[in-house]
Task: inverse folding
């Protein structure tokens, strides 16, 4: 079973379509969306529509903090992020808003756990940004494999003999063996709001039978995504982030 | 840490062995981790310097590893009867350096190079075995955070390995220095330390110069060995290719104070090194290949038969530009003169020697404007019937990263492109080729 894991799409339809096409070319049979479908970008409606379409065919989707902010105001967000949430709220129709509100926070499937942020109190949206945070999340997940987003940079944590988690920064496109006698936590990268000085979209493929994982970076027309943000009248800083890959 | 069996009757077409980690004893965690690491890395390695991977069993349920059995003798067994003569040690050392260069280019560091792990094949090639402590930069390093894990074999580990660094390919060059020292002198430069404090000695202690033990070791070889054994990686060779080149081209080795050193540093110098060693912390490197590529070997093909050719300034200009991109390069200038089998000798043997010298002088004159320090440069006049083949072979033997060659000149312009030296080199080189053409506007009117 080849599983594509996509997170932090942030209303960027061009990036999502590019990653889905890339994943299908890699032989992906199953799709998992790890939250934050809206926010920052200009196309929340087409993104939610596409994700709903995949979910109707068996894909898994969990809720992110930006999705939650559509239903209840998040006071912690900065002004441009809040503007994008307001835009999403005004753009999404009622059934789409209900779809987002009804998403689960965490899904376990056999030896895999899918969650937007840390599996340890997922509703608190804690970042998995250290070895100890990764350990908390894996301990709470109780599964061999954990997959999350929220952090936009791709990262793979693996468990040592004394149960510590150790970070590894993957090199895109390399098949990495992830044997099931250890626990692993993958931060799959952001589709719609990539970081790390590159403008290309990020997502991850997990081959469960072969026990292998690959982190990908996929180029897409990020200038068009920036133009869409300006067309929508969203804050200039959001458009600039696409162009800089920051 | 495990048992090894010969396996017969397999359908793979070459002899194989099976490695099985020993379970249940107190070393079993280390043994299993080393096993897991080798099973992860070995299948990714390609080339003539490593045993071929055949199959592996699941780490937890049925751990075994089947790989190619290599015919040949380990360096350890060669050294059983004591040190070997310098020429043989140099051949084996260059073979190990070839293998290390191939390994490092595959983003892998061995970290456990020692005489037991280097096999000299009947054809003289050296193969490396046992990747249980190795590091592959594209995979998670399962050993990096295991506190109880030993760094390697104590006589051979580099100072930075002692400080728990696991990302510097130059660590393998330190181990190669220890092996070269052992092959030529029969002794270990830092002994066999039994404690952590003893291991840390190599951060500052300089070994007894090899020539103190064996006066027959040439100064250039002592230079190479001691340069490999420098405590700071930045002071060693920057790539295994450079070590291999120096071992095969003694006349091109830049001799420093290391070459004729006749005793260890004095007490005050040692104390100073000890003091500085206290504040050393290893640097993290991302990809071994990227580090090596900062120390490229560039070959310039210079046609000294036509010294007034207008292509020469253009070729030199391109070389000057390329060299600004790296501080650690090595430039090899090669001139091919007619000769070899199938070509009638220009004159008697004495005449040929003077032709060699004549072309060497021209080559030196050609490279002079670049004002390069001697250790960055080497000059060769080769005699060959087919210049393109000679350049391609020489480049392959010396791990050249880039060949810079002129496009067909006025002499060759009447010929079809495929008959030119540039086309032969471009078609058959193992590395990139930069073909330099004189811009049309700049060409002298004919």
Result:
């Amino acid at each position: 079973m080849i599983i594509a894991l996509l997170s932090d799409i942030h209303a960027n339809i061009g990036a999502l379509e590019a990653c889905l096409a890339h994943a299908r070319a890699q032989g992906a049979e199953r799709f998992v969306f790890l939250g934050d479908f809206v926010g920052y970008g200009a196309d929340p409606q087409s993104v939610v529509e596409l994700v709903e379409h995949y979910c109707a065919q068996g894909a898994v989707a969990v809720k992110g903090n930006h999705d939650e902010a559509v239903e209840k105001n998040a006071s912690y967000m900065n002004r441009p992020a809040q503007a994008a949430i307001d835009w999403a709220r005004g753009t999404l129709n009622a059934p789409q808003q209900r779809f987002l509100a009804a998403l689960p926070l965490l899904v376990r499937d056999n030896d895999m756990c899918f969650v937007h942020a840390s599996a340890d109190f997922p509703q608190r949206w804690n970042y998995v940004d250290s070895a100890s945070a990764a350990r908390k999340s894996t301990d709470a997940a109780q599964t061999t494999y954990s997959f999350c987003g929220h952090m936009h940079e791709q990262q793979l944590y693996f468990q040592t003999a004394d149960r510590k988690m150790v970070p590894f920064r993957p090199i895109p496109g390399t098949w990495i063996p992830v044997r099931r006698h250890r626990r692993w936590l993958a931060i799959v990268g952001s589709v719609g709001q990539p970081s790390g000085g590159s403008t290309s979209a990020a997502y991850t493929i997990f081959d469960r039978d072969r026990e292998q994982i690959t982190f990908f970076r996929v180029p897409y027309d990020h200038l068009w995504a920036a133009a869409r943000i300006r067309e929508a009248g969203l804050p200039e800083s959001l458009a600039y982030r696409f162009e800089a890959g920051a | 840490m495990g048992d090894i069996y010969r396996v017969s009757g397999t359908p793979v077409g070459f002899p194989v062995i099976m490695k099985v980690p020993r379970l249940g004893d107190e070393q079993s965690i280390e043994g299993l981790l080393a096993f897991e690491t080798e099973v992860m890395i070995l299948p990714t390695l390609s080339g003539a310097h490593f045993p071929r991977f055949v199959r592996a069993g699941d780490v937890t349920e049925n751990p075994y590893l089947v790989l190619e059995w290599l015919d040949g003798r380990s360096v350890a067994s060669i050294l059983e009867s004591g040190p070997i003569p310098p020429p043989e040690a140099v051949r084996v050392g260059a073979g190990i350096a070839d293998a290390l260069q191939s390994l490092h280019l595959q983003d892998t560091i061995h970290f456990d190079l020692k005489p037991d792990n280097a096999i000299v094949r009947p054809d003289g090639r050296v193969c490396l075995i046992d990747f249980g402590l190795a590091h592959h930069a594209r995979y998670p390093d399962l050993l990096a955070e295991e506190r109880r894990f030993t760094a390697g074999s104590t006589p051979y580990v580099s100072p930075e390995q002692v400080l728990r660094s696991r990302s510097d390919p130059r660590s393998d060059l330190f181990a190669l220095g220890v092996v070269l020292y052992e092959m030529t002198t029969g002794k270990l430069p830092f002994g066999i330390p039994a404690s952590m404090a003893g291991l840390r000695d190599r951060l500052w202690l300089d070994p007894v110069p090899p020539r103190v033990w064996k006066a027959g070791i040439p100064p250039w070889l002592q230079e190479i060995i001691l340069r490999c054994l420098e405590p700071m990686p930045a002071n060693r060779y920057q790539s295994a290719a450079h070590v291999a080149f120096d071992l095969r081209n003694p006349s091109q080795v830049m001799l420093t104070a290391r070459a004729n050193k006749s005793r260890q540093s004095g007490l005050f110098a040692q104390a100073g090194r000890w003091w500085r060693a206290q504040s050393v912390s290893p640097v993290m490197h991302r990809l071994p290949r990227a580090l090596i590529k900062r120390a490229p070997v560039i070959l310039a093909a210079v046609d000294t038969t036509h010294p007034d050719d207008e292509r020469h300034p253009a070729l030199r200009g391109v070389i000057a530009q390329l060299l600004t991109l790296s501080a650690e390069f090595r430039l090899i200038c090669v001139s091919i003169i007619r000769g070899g089998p199938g070509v009638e000798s220009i004159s008697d043997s004495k005449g040929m020697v003077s032709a060699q010298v004549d072309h060497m002088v021209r080559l030196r004159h050609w490279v002079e404007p670049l004002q390069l320090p001697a250790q960055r440069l080497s000059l060769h006049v080769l005699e060959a019937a087919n210049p393109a083949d000679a350049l391609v072979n020489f480049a392959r033997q010396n791990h050249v990263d880039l060949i810079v060659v002129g496009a067909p000149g006025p002499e060759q312009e009447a010929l079809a492109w495929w008959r030119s030296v540039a086309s032969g080199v471009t078609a058959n080189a193992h590395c990139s080729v930069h073909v330099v053409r004189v811009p049309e506007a700049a060409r002298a009117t004919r």
Summary: DSSP finds 15 helices and 14 strands in chain B. The two ends of chain B are 74 Å apart (CA to CA). The first strand of chain B starts at residue 2 and ends at 7. Residues 342-346 of chain B have pLDDT under 50 and may be disordered.
